[in-house]
Write the C-alpha cells for this entry.
Amino acid sequence: MSVLVLPLLVPLSTAVLCLVVAQPRVQRTLGLLGALALLASALALLLEVHRRGIQAVQIGNWPAPFGITFVADHLSALMVFASSVVALAVALYALAEPDPPRERLGYHPLSYFLLFGVNGAFLTGDIFNMYVWFEVLLLSSFVLMVLGNGRAQLAGGVKYFAVSLFSSVLFLVAVGLLYGSTGALNLADLATRVGELPLGLQNALAMLFLTAFGLKAAVFPFFFWLPASYPAPPVAISALFAGLLTKVGVYALLRVFTLLFTQDPAFTHGVILWVAGLTLLLGVLLALAQGELRRLLSFQLVSHIGYMLMGLGLLTPLALAGSVFYALNHMLVISALFLLAGLLDRLQGTSVLVRMGGLYRSHPGLALLFLLPAFSLAGLPPFSGFWAKFTLAAAGLEAGAYAIVGVALLVGLLTLLSMAMVFAEVFWKASPEGRSVPEGWGRLAVPVVLLAVLTLGIGLWAEPLMALSQQAARELLEPTPYIQAVLGVSR
Amino acid sequence: MNTLILRTTSSFLFTLLLLLSVFLLFRGHNEPGGGFIGALVAVGAYALYALAHGLKAARKLLPLHPLRLVGWGLLVALLSALVALFLNKPLMTGVWFSLFGVKVGTPVIFDIGVYLTVFGALLSALFGLEETARTGGQEGG
Amino acid sequence: MEVLLAFLVGGLAAVGVYLMLRPHLIQFLVGFLVLGNAANLLIFTAGRLGSQFPPLVQRDGGLLEPIANPLPQALILTAIVIGFGLAAFGIVLFYRAEQGLGTLSAEAMPEVFEPAPAPSPVDQVEAPRSEKERVPA
C-alpha cells in the first residue's frame, strides 16, 4: 500500500470521524490526533519520495492518462509536510483556546476538509482534478470564514467568496481551453503536448492560468481581497488560511509554469517577474500604512508571495530552490505571526496598534518570542527567512536580474522596519491604559513556540531542507522523470 | 396543502417512495439510478410527508439528526475505498465478492455511502427551513 | 456550429461579467450562474461537436460510430454540481449578510466593521473609536 494516499486519507478520516462523534471535546482530541497522524504520514511520504523517487498512484487502478492520478515529487511532498506542520500548530492553538459555539457548528470537520482539499491540490496529477480540489478547499474555507456569523466575518466572507468564485470560473475556462486545444487533462500527458501548440495560444492559456492562480495566491494586482477578509475570522481559522491557502495558489503556479508553459519564458516568466516585483513593493508599502496588527500581517503575507514568484520568474535551478524554500519557510513564519497576533489580542483586548503597549515590561519572554518569527520574516540571520532570501538574491544576481534583486532587498529592509514598528508599538511603548492581563495565556504560546523554534532550527541547520528544495527545483526543471512516473516507462 | 386526500395518500406514498429510492440505489450499478438519485427520491418522500403533516411530524420519522447521517455516509464511502488498499491495490479499486450468492462489491457500498450523505445533507437543509420559519429567520446557522 | 456556440459563449460571458460587476449581490450571483454556464458551454464546444450518439455499449457489444466525446460531458457535470453547490452557499451567505449587515449592496458593505484606519503608529493623536466586531461566545 502506497503512503502517497495517506496525507489525503488522514484528514478525510479525521473530518468524517469528527462529523460522526459531534461532541466538541472528543472532536478536539480527534483533531489533535489527526494533526499528529497527518504529520507522521507527510514525513513518511517525504522519506519515500526522497528514497525512491517520484511516486504516482492511479486511483481505482485506471491507467493514466485516463484515470485519476496522484503524484508526489519533492515539491508536493515538501508542501504537504509544511502544511501538516501548520495544521498541527493550529490544532494545538484550537486546543488551548476552545471556541465551543464554532465547534458545534463544525469547526473541526471543516478544517480537516480544508486540509483534505489542500493536500489533494498538492498531490494531484491532473489539471481538472486540481480544479476540483480547489473547490473542496474553497468551499470549506468559505464556511470557515463566516462560521459563527460575526458581522466582520460576513463582510469579509462576501468579498472572499465573490473573488474566489470569479477565479474558479477563470480556472475552469482555462482548463476547458487547454483540454480543447490538446485533448489532455493529465499534467504529465499535457507536458508532452502543450509544446506542440502555437506559441500565441500557449501564451494566452498561460496568462489565463496566471490570472486564475494569481487570484488565489493574492499577487499584484489581485491581492485586494486578502487583507479585507483574512483578519475577520477567529485566529485559529485565519492562521490556517494564511499558512495554507495562498501557498496552494503558489504551488499551482510553480507546477503549471514549470511543467506546461516553458516554451516562451522571456514572455511568460517575464510577466511573472514583474508581478513578483510589484507584489513585493506594494504589499510591504501598504503593510507599513496599517494600524491594525492582523491587517498589517495580511499585507506582509501578500508582499512575501512576491518572493516565491520571483524565483519562478527567474527560472534557474537556484532560484526555484529559493522559491520552494521560501514557500516552506513562509508557511511556518506567517502562521506563527498570525497565531501570535491572536495571542496578543487576547492579552490586550485589542489588535489596534496604538491601543496596545507595555508588553515588554510585563511579558519579556513573549517579546522575544515575537522577535523570532518577525526577524525570520524580515530575513535576518540566523533564521530560515535569511537563507530563503539569500538564495533568491544569489540566484537573481547570477541571472543578472539586478532590478528584482534590488526590490527584494529593499522589501526585506522595509519588512524589518514594519516589524520593528510593531515591536515598538506592542512591546516597547508604555501601555496606553492600565489593563489587567488575563492569566492562562501560556498554553496559547505553545504552537507559536513550536513554529518559532522550527524557523530558528531551519535557519541554523538549513542544509537538509535546502538540499530537498534543490532536489525539488531539479525535478521541476527536468520533467521527464515526472512524466515517466505517471505515464509509465513505455511512453 | 393540508387536504384529506394528501394526508391519507402521503403516508402510503412515503413508504412507496422510500422503497423506490432503495430500488434506485441498488439498480444504479448497471442501469440508470444510483445513490445520488435514490437519496433525492427519499428526501422527496420526506418533503411530501412534511407538506401533508408538517415538518415536525416528518422529523419524528428519523431517529437521529440528519447531519449525523452525513458523517456516517462519508464513513461508509471512505471504508469502501479503503478495502482495496488492504488487498495491495490502489485506493478505490473496485473489489467484488460473493455474499450468499449475491454479487457485492465496494462500488455498491460506496453508493450506499453516497446515498446516506446526500440524504442527510438535503434532509438537514429541509429541516433547517423549519427552524428558520420558527425563529422568524433570526437564528444563526 | 462551433462558431455559433463560440459567439454564444462570448455573449454569455459578457452578460455574466457585467452582472458580476453590478453592486447588488443578487445580481452578482445571477452573473456567476450565467458565467458558469458560459464556461460549461465553452468546455462542451472545446471538446468538439461531432456526433450525437451516446458513448454507450449496445446490447450486442458494439458501439455506435461515431460516438460523442464523453469526457467534456463528465467535466461539465462535475462543474455544474460544484457551481450548484457554490451558488446555494452564496444564496445562504448573502441572506445571512443581509440579516447581519442590513444591506445587499456590495458598495455599502465594506470597511464598516473593519478596525477604523488608525493613525500612523508614530503619532498617536487620538485612539480610533471602533474596534473589530467580535462574536459573542
